[in-house]
């Protein structure tokens, strides 16, 4: 059975069809990438999957359950977590405090009382373990405001993992990263493969082709192709979507990792 099954999803904004009868399946442990030109509707799609946006038509099934009308919190408690295109961490707190908040919230607790929560070993231990998992273990007591952008992205990944999700919705996790930071994040996501299924929205083609089991190409809200990285790289319709009038740009965008000039 598919972990995630999306059936003919539609999202309209007036006369604009932002999501056009989109369907997809994701198997347990699979990394499935969504790529497409700017304005293709990728963020609108992931917003519907996370529960931040409600579709106008279609269904979203998670572990066989219809979650189309469930809230973000309800989906998170079922094992579906999202990271954001723009980091959503609290800069005035330390890395450990940020992850404590995520662990506490996703366990159903209220965190209006910070002091008791901060001292709870039941919260601190798993929070530290999550920082260790994403390579930030030694940065636990550093204020987020003093951390690099790439570390912010690692921290957000740790927070997304706090609810022990079976499916991660990753919205451009490499956005704004340097080449070395992107390579590090790619390695961390690869290490999570198998334990967590992932739907990856990403512009970094090196990362996409290094990580994805399958890739779906979105253009004007509609899926124009779905297949393995090799199949997508060779697909004429995909090349046309990235091509425009510049064949060199197309070859660069769809090059295999390490092939880019």
UniProtKB/TrEMBL annotation:
<keyword id="KW-1003">Cell membrane</keyword>
<dbReference type="Pfam" id="PF12399">
    <property type="entry name" value="BCA_ABC_TP_C"/>
</dbReference>
<feature type="domain" description="ABC transporter">
    <location>
        <begin position="4"/>
        <end position="245"/>
    </location>
</feature>
<keyword id="KW-0067">ATP-binding</keyword>
<protein>
    <submittedName>
        <fullName>Branched-chain amino acid transport system ATP-binding protein</fullName>
    </submittedName>
</protein>
<keyword id="KW-0472">Membrane</keyword>
<dbReference type="InterPro" id="IPR032823">
    <property type="entry name" value="BCA_ABC_TP_C"/>
</dbReference>
<dbReference type="InterPro" id="IPR027417">
    <property type="entry name" value="P-loop_NTPase"/>
</dbReference>
<keyword id="KW-0813">Transport</keyword>
<keyword id="KW-0547">Nucleotide-binding</keyword>
<dbReference type="InterPro" id="IPR003593">
    <property type="entry name" value="AAA+_ATPase"/>
</dbReference>
<dbReference type="InterPro" id="IPR051120">
    <property type="entry name" value="ABC_AA/LPS_Transport"/>
</dbReference>
<dbReference type="GO" id="GO:0005524">
    <property type="term" value="F:ATP binding"/>
</dbReference>
<keyword id="KW-0997">Cell inner membrane</keyword>
<dbReference type="Pfam" id="PF00005">
    <property type="entry name" value="ABC_tran"/>
</dbReference>
<dbReference type="InterPro" id="IPR003439">
    <property type="entry name" value="ABC_transporter-like_ATP-bd"/>
</dbReference>
